[in-house]
Amino acid sequence: MRTRINPYGISKSARALSKYLGAKRLLVTGSRFKGKYGDTVINWGNGRGDVGGARQINRLYDVQLANNKLSTLRVLTEANVDVPNWTTERSALVPEKLYMARTTLYGHSGQGIRLGEPYELPVTAPLYVEYIEKVAEYRVIVVNSKIVDFKKKKRRNNYEGTYGEHIWNHGSGYIFARNDIVVPIGCGKLGVDAVMALGLDFGAVDIIEDKVGKLYVLEVNTAFGIEGTTLELFGDALRSLL
Questions:
Q1: Are 217 and 206 in contact (CB under 8 A)?
Q2: I want to staple 27 with a disulfide (CB 3.0 to 4.6 A). Which of 31, 185, 195, 212 is the partner?
Q3: Do 102 and 57 share a domain, yes or no?
Q4: More confident residue, 108 or 67
């Protein structure tokens, strides 16, 4: 019986998880691994490759779905999981409203996002998502339909730049933290519902809260930052699956 991690590429988190679980990582390209009955492969954000007859934690197909921003929103909408309004047609946008145009469906950390009113956005973007003014952003990490960690976006101390107004990420002065936070009612269930709708065994769900307290799922990550306490909580939960 062998356990392997199938990473999407060079990943600090995949390396940390490999060490924590005592599981080797597969080569991103040129892997000769042929899974057989009794083997387990943890797909860390990788929707490619052939893992043979190994049992998969996060199946390749489901990772492909979750990695694509448009397919994620389609699946979540069909499953009645709350997400922002979205469309693939710029002509369907409402004048004077703000939208985020995604010029790539696979970007992360704000890659490929253009914010503006309809007339300011690209004509041929594959996805347009209505911008929601948020007061908070959370991350819910789910394993096997159970919540294993909660975090909230907070401003980084001693950040020397200008804090991002619309997109909150490390580059705009924000980090996830778990201390001294209050998680709104329903946030955890929303995270579990999103992971289950996509057929995933685990995922990190990014959820925003608007000024009237309504929650929306933005995306579900199948490869995410894990270190310290998060690594322990997530790694131990994965062990229970193994």
A1: yes
A2: 31
A3: no
A4: 67
One-letter amino acid at 74 equals R
- The edge-to-edge listing of strands for the beta sheet with 174-177 is 174-177, 146-155, 134-143, 202-210, 215-221
For the chain, the average pLDDT equals: 92
What's the CA dihedral at 26, 241, 71, 125 to 10 degrees?
Answer: -50
Rounded Cα–Cα distance for residues 88 and 92 (Å): 8
Residue 36 DSSP SS3? coil
Rg (CA), the chain: 18
First-to-last C-alpha distance (Å) of the chain: 11
Number of domains in the chain: 3
| DSSP code of residue 106 | S
3-state secondary structure of 146: strand
Burial of 144 (0-12, 13-18, 19+ CB in 10 A): middle
Q: Do 145 and 104 fall into the same domain?
A: no
Calpha distance 117→149 (Å, rounded):
36
pLDDT digits (tens, 9 = 90+) for 22-54: 999 998 887 888 889 999 999 999 988 888 899
Tokens of 220: 């579900």
List the domain range (segments joined by +) for residue 112.
Answer: 86-130
Residues 91 and 150 in one domain: no
- Sign, CA torsion 140/173/111/11: negative
Give the burial class of 235: count Cβ atoms within 10 A of its Cβ; 0-12 exposed, 13-18 middle, 19 or more buried.
middle
pTM comes to 0.93
Domain check: are 151 and 180 in the same one?
Answer: yes
> What confidence tens digit (pLDDT) does each residue in 186-225 have?
999 999 999 999 999 999 999 999 999 999 999 999 999 9
CA-wise closest residue to 16 among 195, 238, 203: 238
